């Protein structure tokens, strides 16, 4: 009775030109229909909410990843500039150190010459003093003889002029040598003070070089950490997509191996006494940065991006469907939504293809190919080179299609693979 109260029995009369028929709707039939309609509506609301939240979350994650990548690149640039600045400072300090060593060497040579001269003068003075003592002894003996003779001679006898002149010559020579010795000692003391000052300056330069080396070690450490942190998600992304990073890098190097111009050292020279360990660390960092650049090129040439930037929902994935292989992923969206190339490549097909409708096919590096089907309009031509993010057409409903959507395929050496593998692999990186 309650069921009949809410869903009373109804009769639908269907009249045509020749007859009249009616359909009888019982309460149980009406209840089943209402319940089924409610379930469909509820499922539609929940699925739409989940897709919207996933789309919003994916957009925020991509923006955050782009900001983090930009911050990493800016930090790497700053560290590279600081490293170059520290290398220039170290080179300048090394040059100042070399100049100071040359000055010290010259001062030491002059000091050794002065010391030798002093020793020669001391030896000469010793000889002169011995001669002077002998002369003084001879003078005293002569004076004694003079006194003896004076006592025997008369008071008016003449003095001995030769002995007096000789004594005066010896005294003058001794005064000259004493003055020369004093001047030499003064020069030696001055050179000693200069050498002490130069040694202090050398100690200061050595301390400054040590500080520069410590700062350079910190810079190397930060660069190594930045390279490691930046490369880890890229390695994980390529591994998740089933690609061999080493093989990709070799292929990129073969395509980007041009050189030219005068050859010079990759790092600024810091003199013959440079630490081999620092040079090796710098070379390893540069190799890591070069590998990151190769990764960047490989990413641009691999289909890691989404072909749509507007709102969409997934309607059919890769795999078996009704006994047949569905070789791509379907994205449903508004009619005319822009469709973009997911990687750099060359257009090999742009036009009608049975089943696909309006189809654009792009050949990429590493044996990869992407297909974009059911377009309402193609915007590229065969042979045209496109870059990642270039608009190649508009979403439509051409070919074997039940509604407006994009059929997106990724093929490796002609074999279809799940395109979502590439998209999900890059979700937390870009």
Characterise the protein shown here.
- There is one protein chain.
- The chain is of the alpha+beta class.
- It has three domains: 2-41, no CATH class; 83-150 and 163-255 and 275-300; 306-317 and 325-430, Glucose Permease (Domain IIA).
- The chain has six helices and 14 strands.
- The strands form three sheets. Strands 3, 6, 7, 8, 9, 10, 11, 12, 13 and 14 form a ten-stranded antiparallel beta sheet that branches.
- The model is unreliable at 263-271 (pLDDT under 50).
Q: Which short descriptors sum up this protein?
A:
single chain, 430 residues, alpha+beta, Glucose Permease (Domain IIA), 3 domains, 10-stranded antiparallel beta sheet, two-stranded antiparallel ribbon, 6 helices, 18% strand, rod-shaped
Describe, in short, the structure shown.
The chain has helices spanning 2-6, 27-152, 161-240, 245-255, 276-300, 419-425, and strands at 10-15, 20-25, 312-316, 319-321, 324-326, 329-333, 338-340, 345-353, 357-363, 368-378, 385-386, 391-395, 405-412, 415-417. With 430 residues, the protein is of the alpha+beta class.
Mean pLDDT: 79
Number of helices: 6
Query: Biggest β-sheet, characterized?
Result: 10 strands, antiparallel
Query: What integer value in Å does the Rg equal?
Result: 50 Å
Order of helices and strands: HEEHHHHEEEEEEEEEEEEH
Low-pLDDT parts are: 263-271
Question: Structural class per helix/strand content?
Answer: alpha+beta
Tell me the strand percentage band: 15-25%
Number of strands: 14
Helix content: 55-70%
Distance between the termini: 62 Å
Total domain units: 3
Shape: rod-shaped
């Amino acid at each position: 009775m309650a069921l009949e109260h809410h869903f009373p029995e109804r009769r639908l009369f269907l009249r045509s030109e020749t007859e009249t028929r009616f359909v009888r709707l019982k309460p149980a039939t009406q209840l089943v229909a209402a319940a089924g309609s409610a379930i469909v509506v509820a499922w539609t609301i929940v699925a739409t909410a989940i897709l919207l939240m996933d789309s919003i979350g994916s957009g925020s994650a991509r923006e955050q990843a782009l900001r983090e990548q930009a911050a990493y690149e800016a930090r790497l640039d700053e560290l590279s500039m600081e490293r170059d600045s520290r290398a220039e400072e170290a080179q300048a300090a090394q040059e100042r150190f070399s100049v100071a060593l040359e000055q010290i060497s010259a001062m030491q040579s002059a000091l050794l010459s002065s010391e030798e001269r002093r020793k020669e003068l001391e030896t000469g003075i010793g000889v002169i003093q011995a001669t002077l003592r002998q002369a003084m002894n001879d003078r005293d003996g002569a004076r004694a003889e003079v006194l003896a003779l004076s006592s025997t001679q008369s008071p008016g006898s003449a003095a001995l002029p030769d002995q007096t002149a000789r004594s005066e010559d010896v005294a003058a020579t001794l005064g000259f040598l004493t003055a020369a010795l004093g001047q030499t000692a003064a020069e030696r003391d001055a050179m000693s003070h200069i050498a002490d000052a130069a040694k202090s300056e050398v100690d200061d330069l050595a301390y400054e070089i040590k500080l520069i080396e410590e700062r350079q070690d910190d810079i190397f450490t930060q660069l190594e950490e930045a390279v490691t942190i930046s490369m880890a998600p890229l390695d994980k992304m390529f591994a998740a997509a089933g690609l061999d990073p080493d093989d990709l890098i070799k292929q990129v190097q073969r395509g980007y191996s041009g050189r030219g111009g005068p050859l010079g050292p990759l790092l600024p020279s810091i003199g013959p006494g440079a630490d081999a360990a620092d040079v090796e660390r710098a070379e390893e960092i540069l190799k890591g940065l070069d590998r990151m650049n190769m990764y960047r090129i490989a990413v641009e040439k691999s289909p890691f991006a989404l072909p749509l930037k507007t709102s969409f929902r997934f309607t059919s994935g890769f795999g078996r469907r009704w006994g047949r292989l569905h070789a791509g992923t379907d994205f449903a969206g508004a009619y005319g939504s822009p469709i973009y190339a997911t990687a750099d490549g060359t257009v090999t097909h742009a036009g009608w293809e049975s089943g696909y409708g309006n189809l654009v096919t792009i050949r990429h590096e590493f044996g990869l190919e992407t297909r974009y089907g059911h377009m309402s309009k193609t915007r590229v031509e065969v042979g045209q080179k496109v870059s990642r993010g270039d608009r190649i057409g508009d979403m439509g409903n051409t070919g074997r299609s039940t509604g407006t959507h994009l059929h997106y395929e990724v093929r490796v050496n002609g074999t279809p693979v799940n395109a979502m593998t590439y998209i999900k692999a890059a979700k937390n990186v870009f």
